[in-house]
Every structure is written in structure tokens, then in C-alpha cells.
Design goal:
single chain, seven-stranded mixed sheet, globular, binds guanosine-5'-triphosphate, binds magnesium ion
């Protein structure tokens, strides 16, 4: 199966679960700390500059953004977590929405958990990883901002990420740089594999 990444449309911004599309197209969910680069990774996959909004008012977005690619798959930009200046109410709203989203098993096809290759994953990252594990759906970890650290740190940091998030062996980690494009083909390949599997599983 091919995916024409040029054919990307913004569909909607969901403020509540009822707004989320349920038309059985696979849903690839991108989750991660605010500012880790979720929108940038989506932009890079789609070879767009400003498609999924980058860097505007971190933490203000408690909406789930849906993009449809080639009428075949949704890329779901989940609202970022861990932004210090977010109010208690907003945090609670975030938690409720995400919890409901994960609880609705008809939504998630493949999870993409973004972390920062430079740092040890935070407690919030560990909670997010646990949600993906509990979902029972496959997920991959993307270690972004690789261009920001020395090559000698790549391997040890990847190991620290795997250990801290307690990733099962079946969960791959992809080194990524949304800035430079590194990891694009590998991640896109994984996404396509999962869409294919999902399709075969249904027919
Ligand atoms: P929220 O939507 O606020 O949760 O943030 P986000 O996770 O979508 O992050 P976003 O894509 O907006 O990126 C945050 C900042 O990091 C921007 O200034 C990006 O340009 C920068 N950035 C993202 N990925 C990379 C990368 O791989 N390398 C470098 N050097 N900068 C990056
Ligand atoms: Mg974003």
C-alpha cells in the first residue's frame, strides 16, 4: 500500500470524545510532552513546513487535532503534557479527554510516543508509556531532537530511554530529527506496516 503524504487535510480539533471521527480509518496517535516536537514530526512526515501548527502557546491546546492523509489514515496530534504553566483545571481537562480517548478502543491503531533524545524521560513520559502499554495496541517510541546532541550520546541515551520507560522488547525506538529529517523513512515504514496489518486483519 502506498500513502500519498502530499494529500493531507486538517479535519477537526476535538475538544471532547464525541467529536472524534469513528469511520474505521486507522488512527495513528502522536503523544508527548509539550514542546517535544509532535507537530514538527508530523510536518516532517508530510514534508510540510507549517501544517500541524508548531510551537504556538504550549499547553494551551487541550484539543485533539485530526489530520487525514490520503483518505486512508488519520494522524492524531494528542495535546502535549507537562507544561509547567498549565492551570489545574486545564490539566484535569487534558487528563479526562486523554483517558476517555484511550478507553475507547475503536480509536487507536498505533501509538507514537515522542520523547527527547537528549534527556531521561520524565515521570509524565512514563505515565504516557504506561497508557500505551495498557491500551494493548502496538506503539513505537520516537526519540526526537537527535540533531541537538553529540553522536557519542545517541546510544547511551537510547538505552536510558528504553530502561526508564520499561519498554517491552517488541517496542522499537526510532532516533529522529524533525529538524533534519532523520528517521522519517523508518517511522513512515512502521506506520505503513501497521496500516497494512490493520487492513488485512479486517478483511
Ligand atoms: P505542543 O503542541 O505545544 O505540545 O508542542 P509540540 O510537541 O507539537 O512541539 P513543536 O513541534 O511545536 O516543536 C517545539 C519546538 O521544538 C519548535 O521550536 C521546533 O522547531 C523544535 N523542534 C522540534 N523538533 C525538533 C528537532 O528534531 N530538532 C530541533 N533542533 N528542534 C526541534
Ligand atoms: Mg504541537
Amino acid at each position: 500500500m502506498d500513502l500519498n503524504t502530499q494529500k493531507a487535510e486538517f479535519i477537526l480539533s476535538a475538544a471532547k470524545l464525541a467529536d472524534c471521527p469513528r469511520d474505521r480509518l486507522p488512527q495513528i496517535a502522536f503523544a508527548g510532552r509539550s514542546n517535544v516536537g509532535k507537530s514538527s514530526v508530523i510536518n516532517r512526515l508530510l514534508r510540510r513546513k507549517n501544517f500541524a501548527r508548531v510551537g504556538s502557546a504550549p499547553g494551551k491546546t487541550t484539543h485533539i487535532n485530526y489530520f487525514r492523509i490520503d483518505e486512508k489514515v488519520y494522524f492524531v496530534d494528542l495535546p502535549g503534557y507537562g507544561y509547567a504553566k498549565v492551570s489545574k483545571q486545564e490539566r484535569a481537562r487534558w487528563g479526562k479527554l486523554i483517558e476517555q480517548w484511550f478507553a475507547d478502543t475503536s480509536l487507536l491503531t498505533l501509538g507514537v510516543l515522542l520523547v527527547d533524545l537528549r534527556h531521561k524521560p520524565t515521570a509524565d513520559d512514563c505515565v504516557m508509556a504506561q497508557w500505551f502499554k495498557d491500551s494493548g495496541k502496538p506503539f513505537v517510541v520516537v526519540a526526537n531532537k537527535q540533531d541537538k546532541i553529540k553522536k557519542s550520546q545517541w546510544e547511551p541515551n537510547l538505552a536510558l530511554i528504553r530502561e526508564t520507560l520499561q519498554l517491552p522488547e517488541t517496542v522499537p525506538i526510532v532516533s529522529f530529527s524533525a529538524e533534519k529529517g532523520l528517521g522519517r523513512e523508518e517511522l513512515l515504514g512502521m506506520i505503513l506496516d501497521h496500516i497494512r496489518e490493520e487492513k488485512e486483519g479486517r478483511t
